[in-house]
Write a structure and sequence with these properties.
Layout: E1 8-12, H1 15-18, E2 45-46, H2 64-78, E3 82-86, H3 89-92, H4 103-118, E4 122-128, H5 134-140, H6 147-162, E5 169-173, H7 182-189, E6 199-200, H8 208-232, E7 237-243, E8 246-249, H9 254-277, H10 283-290, H11 301-307, E9 312-316, E10 320-323, E11 332-334, E12 339-341, H12 357-371, E13 375-379, H13 397-416, E14 420-426, E15 446-448, E16 460-462, H14 464-474
Parallel strand pairs: 1-3, 1-14, 3-4, 4-5, 5-7, 7-9, 8-10, 9-13, 13-14
Antiparallel strand pairs: 2-6, 11-12, 15-16
Helix pairs in contact: 2-4, 6-8, 8-11, 12-13
Length: 481
């Protein structure tokens, strides 16, 4: 097996999980800046205002804002061909409602992009990665208001024009299909039905109709952004980004088959069907009917969606789970902001996410057969408790083993005929967990000396996986030992 020439190896991060500097150089407050710390067993909260004495991890994160040159140099040492990062909307438009952008915010990303280019690293930029301005959440309930479409496209035009000629690949919304879930609707869509009191992130007050209305507005916003990008620079390529929540029927019972099909349609295919095919899939009509959901659409929306399908498909992939109508003698398993029935054939990570490398091959084949678009896996990694050994180093063989198995299965998918063009591991440097709001859940090849008690000097150290991934990239995925 071999990966295609020019395959884009790299890593991925998000602004709110690594930049810090949450209120420097004119940056405004995003919904993530009001998200407290949490753990695997204690949900983080979203507070309507800053609570004295409460810990907000995004405020300092790993201080990438002041360490970006050091970090990019380390990525270059590994041999990165691509680096996926996000722009914080609130660095460009602090509340989202300003007429003019914040120049200092634009300059920071100029500097970051230039630093990538200095080492021949291709930037892959996520435009909205759980970074909706808090003022938009308060005034518009995120994307529930149609006005937010215009605020988003204003932001897009600014960055498309500013970084023309320096960036090729863009993603509109991170894990947009997370908006089909209550917790995901908060970060993915900014829909928060109670903004005057703290909300448990994993258990928000939910209004499904508002969530799906907000998703519709994101679909329209994404399509308009794709069309705008192509007009500003024909070389721009704009993709979607989905959670690939791979799911299997637990038993051969036909009822499990149907239940699993329904899950996959809602969770894994609905949003990408709209973004890749340019129209709503017919199967959602029954779902909306049975859940008393009515989506308000303007007459021009169908044409906008038709004219703005994405150029390529990207996804996160961490785990899989099962669906069954037979709940006796089954166990539940955790996942990426969701859960399901445990698969008895799989082991799980420290955070209870079931490890399923073969599921990645299966998923890539399903995606390719469905859309026939180039694919990137832009998040894949193992969150684990990394501890220094007696020699002062971090020997993360468990991470290497996880990544090795997933890369092997990506190679199998390429052999199967999948047009896979890139792979960016999640958390190529340790950062704050999006789901739990903690440092303890580490993903990186680079260890950051920062801890959940607020201690640590932010120094960076290479783990064993750093040197292993460097070898993988140099061999274009052939040397996985």
């Amino acid at each position: 097996m071999s990966f295609p020439k020019g395959f884009l190896w790299g890593g991925a991060t998000a602004a709110n999980q690594l930049e810090g500097a949450w209120n420097e150089d004119g940056k405004g407050v995003s919904i993530s800046d009001l998200s407290t710390g949490g753990t695997a067993t204690q949900s983080k909260r979203i507070t309507p205002h800053l609570e004295e004495g409460t810990y907000y991890p995004s405020h300092v994160a790993i201080d990438h804002y002041h360490h970006y040159k050091e970090d990019i140099k380390l990525f270059a040492e590994m041999g990165f061909k691509v680096y996926r990062f996000s722009i914080a909307w609130t660095r460009i438009y602090p509340t989202g409602f300003e007429d003019e952008p914040n120049e200092k915010g634009l300059q920071f990303y100029d500097n970051l992009i230039d630093e990538c280019r200095k080492y021949n690293i291709e930037p892959l930029i996520t435009i909205c990665h759980y970074e909706i301005p808090w003022e938009i959440v308060k005034r518009n309930n995120g994307f529930y208001s149609r006005e937010t479409i215009d605020l988003f496209t204003k932001y897009c035009r600014t960055i498309f024009e500013r970084y023309k000629g320096k960036v090729k690949y863009w993603l509109t919304f991170n894990e947009i299909n997370n908006g089909t879930n209550p917790a995901g609707g908060v970060l993915a869509c900014g829909v928060l039905n109670e903004t005057e009191k703290p909300t448990e992130f994993m258990h928000p007050v939910d209004d499904p109709e508002k969530r799906f209305q907000a998703l519709h507005h994101e679909f329209v916003a994404s399509a308009l952004a794709v069309k705008m990008a192509h007009e500003i620079d024909p070389n721009y390529k704009v993709g979607c980004m989905q959670i690939m929540a791979t799911s299997y029927p637990l038993t051969p019972d036909p009822q499990d088959q149907i239940l699993n099909q329904q899950h996959n349609r809602r969770m894994n295919w609905f949003c990408s069907d709209v973004q890749c095919r340019g129209a709503y899939p017919t199967y959602m009509k029954r779902y909306f009917k049975e859940h008393n959901i009515t989506i308000k659409m303007e007459p021009e929306d169908a044409q906008i969606l038709k004219e703005g399908p994405v150029d390529f498909y990207t996804c996160s992939y961490y785990m899989s789970f099962c669906q069954t109508v037979h709940t006796e003698n089954t166990k539940e398993t955790a996942g990426n902001m969701m859960g399901g029935t445990a698969n008895p054939y799989l082991k799980a990570s420290d955070w209870g996410w079931q490890i399923d490398p073969i599921g990645l091959r299966y998923s890539l084949n399903e995606i390719w057969d469905r859309y026939q678009l180039p694919i990137m896996v832009v998040e894949n990694g193992l969150g684990a408790y990394d501890k220094k050994s007696e020699d002062g180093k971090i020997h993360d063989d468990y991470r290497i083993d996880y990544l090795r198995q997933h890369i092997q299965q990506m190679g199998e998918a390429v052999e199967d005929g999948v047009d896979l063009i890139g792979y960016t591991t999640w958390g190529c440097i340790d950062l704050v967990s999006a789901s739990t709001g903690e440092y303890a859940k580490r993903y990186g090849f680079i260890y950051v000396n920062r801890f959940d008690d607020g201690t640590g000097d932010f120094s960076r150290e290479k783990k064993d996986s750093f040197y292993w991934y460097k070898k993988v990239i140099a061999s274009n995925g052939e040397d996985l030992d």
